């Protein structure tokens, strides 16, 4: 048997080993720290470049914060919070965050739900009796997920001739909700984003909680999370020290970019209204990752996809868009009001969070958030270098596979009216066809002569009804949801024909008037003395503006006289317009 070493020898040996370990550990930590700092320095330079157009002494700007594993790894302000006084944006600058607010409203409902004070399966009238009775019940949960069918108040405001500079309060919103005669669709059958539901959710929190929504969220959310510079602004006239002002581009002046004020006088909370800083949003993003406050069960509830009545899943949770970015799961939401722009993007698996707040209308918060994400995501999650590397989830095909399918672009191009009231715009390109989404053209790749996919998302188009060399029907496939549509042909109508539709119309759901006039070979709408949207004849008392997704279907009495119209537009479907004068 080996003799035991004296205790002093053991200690001496252990001490020498421990000392060596400490030295090596220190050296490795220095190497790692130096490398990490060098990488972070490079990232800082790249992030600064993203914000360069808004980081001058003459432009509005933005604030950004990036967290990783609970630590802030980038935090900075760019440009000005106030142009008149040259006040710079800092991470402590308070911004209006627009629809980014919704996740906090949903979290408030979630807290009350888990405390047994709110049942999200109950109809909204259980908590707010003054909401009209509709053909179908609307539940609290359907409002959370935008499947309620409620008409959107932002669009209703537009039909009243309102703009962001007008004073708009929760009382105005509640009045518009009380006037709604019908829903856009059967609740639970579709997703359609609507701010009305989130105003009602805030009302529920206030009534159940026994205090104003602002006070309840401050006491139960912001204070516990340490978000000391955040609150829901329920008084547009309140002076809030340190807040950013709203701007929009006003053309180019001799001395460089010129901006004008873009005033916003909102006293609406729930759907919007959160004033916050990127510093505070860092604490919120960390809680979305950890679930520390409120518990992981509630956090998981917030990021769980809902299902429609037919069982299909929606990529929307509790005030949060749920999806992926370059294959990496994301939790995100942004916002747009007047000149304010916001984006919050969280990658829970990577424990990475990015929050951006800006104060000018042209600022691309969402795009910059994605660029920042590209710097920190694992290499395998970086953007694909070629189109050929991207695979369509529904077909399993790549653009290289699609190159073998020959098509005739003219057979598909045109406008298709979908049965949800929206339009599908298919345009021709030299090597195929595009799905036109606003100003953006997304290339459609053929999996066959009738089935097409895009590489940017799990979406595509199926064509049918081939006759006389052209397709007459199309079905939009978006994240598993199918929406059918038929091709429409706009045409010129005679002046006599157009005159039948001209006149003044009353909108019972907005308590306002709209005038329709003949302009050249089409009709144009006038609201509050301002010329609005033009629509072209599409046959059978039907007029459309596919680019703006607006349609008017006129109704006649037994004598053939035009007496009304049904309007469909962004977030409003089949709303009544009563003709009152020729």
TrEMBL record:
It comes from the Bacteria. Signal peptide: none annotated. InterPro entries: AmpC-like, Beta-lactam-related, Beta-lactam/transpept-like. Keywords: Membrane, Transmembrane, Transmembrane helix. Residues 57-367 form the Beta-lactamase-related domain. The chain crosses the membrane at residues 20-38. This is Beta-lactamase family protein. It comes from Emcibacter nanhaiensis.
């Amino acid at each position: 048997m080996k003799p035991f070493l004296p205790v002093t020898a053991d200690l001496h040996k252990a001490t020498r080993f421990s000392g060596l370990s400490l030295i090596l550990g220190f050296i490795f930590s220095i190497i790692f720290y130096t490398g990490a700092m060098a990488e972070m320095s490079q990232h800082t330079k790249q992030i600064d470049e993203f914000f360069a157009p808004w980081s001058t002494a003459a432009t509005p700007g933005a604030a950004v914060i990036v967290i990783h594993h609970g630590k802030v790894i980038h935090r900075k302000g760019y440009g000005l919070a106030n142009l008149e006084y040259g006040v710079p944006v800092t991470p402590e600058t308070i911004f209006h965050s627009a629809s980014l607010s919704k996740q906090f409203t949903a979290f408030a409902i979630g807290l009350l739900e888990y405390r047994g004070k709110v049942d999200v399966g109950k109809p909204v009238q259980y908590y707010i009796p003054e909401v009209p009775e509709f053909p179908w019940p609307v539940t609290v949960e359907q409002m959370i997920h935008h499947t309620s069918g409620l008409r959107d108040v932002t669009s209703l405001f537009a039909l009243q001739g309102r703009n962001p500079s007008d004073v708009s309060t929760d009382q105005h919103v509640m009045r518009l909700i009380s006037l709604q005669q019908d829903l856009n669709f059967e609740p639970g059958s579709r997703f359609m984003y609507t701010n009305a539901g989130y105003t009602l959710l805030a009302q529920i929190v206030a009534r159940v909680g026994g205090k104003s929504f602002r006070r309840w969220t401050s006491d139960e959310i912001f204070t516990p999370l340490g978000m000391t510079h955040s609150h829901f602004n329920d008084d547009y006239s309140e002076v809030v020290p340190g807040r950013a002002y709203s701007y929009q581009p006003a053309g180019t002046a001799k001395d460089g970019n010129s901006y004008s004020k873009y005033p916003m006088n909102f006293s609406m909370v729930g759907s919007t209204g959160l004033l916050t800083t990127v510093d505070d949003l860092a604490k919120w993003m960390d809680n979305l990752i950890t679930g520390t406050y409120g518990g992981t069960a509630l956090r998981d509830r917030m990021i769980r996809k809902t299902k429609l009545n037919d069982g299909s899943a929606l990529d929307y949770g509790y005030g949060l868009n749920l999806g992926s970015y370059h294959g990496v799961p994301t939790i995100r939401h942004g916002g747009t009001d007047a000149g304010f722009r916001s984006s919050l993007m969280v990658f829970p698996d990577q424990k990475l969070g990015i929050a951006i707040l800006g104060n000018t209308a042209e600022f691309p918060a969402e795009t910059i958030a994605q660029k920042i994400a590209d710097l920190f995501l694992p290499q395998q999650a970086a953007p694909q270098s070629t189109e050929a590397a991207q695979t369509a989830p529904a077909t399993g095909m790549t653009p290289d596979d699609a190159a073998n399918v020959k098509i005739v672009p003219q057979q598909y191009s045109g406008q298709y009216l979908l049965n949800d009231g929206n339009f599908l715009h298919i345009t021709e390109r030299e090597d195929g066809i595009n799905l036109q989404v606003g100003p953006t053209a997304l290339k459609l790749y053929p999996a066959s002569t009738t089935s097409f996919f895009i590489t940017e998302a799990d979406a595509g188009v199926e064509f049918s009804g081939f006759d006389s060399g052209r397709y007459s029907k199309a079905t939009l496939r978006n994240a598993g949801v199918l929406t059918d549509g038929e091709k429409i042909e706009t045409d010129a109508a005679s002046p006599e024909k157009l005159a039948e539709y001209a006149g003044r119309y009353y909108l019972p759901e907005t308590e306002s008037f709209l005038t329709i006039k003949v302009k050249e070979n089409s009709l144009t709408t006038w609201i509050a003395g301002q010329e609005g949207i033009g629509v072209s004849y599409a046959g059978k008392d039907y007029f459309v503006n596919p680019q703006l997704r607006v349609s008017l279907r006129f109704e006649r009495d037994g004598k053939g006289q035009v007496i009304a119209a049904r309007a469909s537009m962004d977030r409003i479907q089949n709303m009544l317009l009563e003709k009152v004068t020729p």
